[in-house]
Amino acid sequence: MLVVWQDEVHPSGRLIAYTSDGGEASAGHPERLRHLQEIQSGKPGSLVVATAVDPQSSPREVRQVARLVYPITRVIEEFDGSWTVERGEPVQPEEWLRQRR
Question: Other C-beta atoms within 10 Å of 56: how many?
């Protein structure tokens, strides 16, 4: 499951899931790209949306995570090197867990 920031919206209107510069330095950055590539190739994926305490700080601190899970319906590698996602209709976490069984 990916966590994306509520305030990071690409000019296309899609949520930014990955940037080529890595944004905040993270050991998980290559793993995130691999997950996005797998989802783009047809593997199911989902996301939750987080709100930052201060969107300008780095690294960011999570204020809250929305209590909804969104299926990822499409992953797009943008011309600017970022990867964005389109999301489907949200479900409650309990329903998401049931669907995965």
Answer: 7
